[in-house]
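Researcher: Next sequence.
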Amino acid sequence: MSGVRKGLAKVEIALRWDPSPAGTPAHDLDIVAGVYGAADPYGRPVYLVHFGSRSPDGTITLNRDSHTGQGFGFDEVMTLELDRMAGELRRVVIGVVIQAESVTFADVAGRGLRIREGYTDLALDDFGGVPDATAAAVAEFARDESGAWSLDATVRGFVADPEEFARVMGAAHG
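Model: Next structure:
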């Protein structure tokens, strides 16, 4: 999935996967959002939003969090209200990280990602392009000088534990 869409206001990131086989540890995939300021758009995030948290201003919330992939449809859902974010916030990078040692996207069945605004799907992916990764940056929202937000939905894989991924997910890429 890739491409750019401009003028976004409120978007939803949804993640699904099937439970791990019986008798094996649960696969736990998590959505993570890194928010970057104008002063350091590719450095340290101003804040991170993930399971058990939300943005300080309430513009990013994790509406649904699954630890097993059990359920119908999308198991984990995050909402971003880009149009309400403070002007000094310029970039939001969305990532997905697997919370299990030595598990890659290839090991997780039924995986899928959907990014939508309202009822319009902006991007869909199944992580097939990053099978050996343990984490992936899946979307980058950027605010231009006029204040309009755009989306680049290119999936980039990482081999990193959750803590390391949180540090590197927003780094500049070529």
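Model: The CA atoms of residues 43 and 92 lie 12 Å apart. The longest helix spans residues 162-168.
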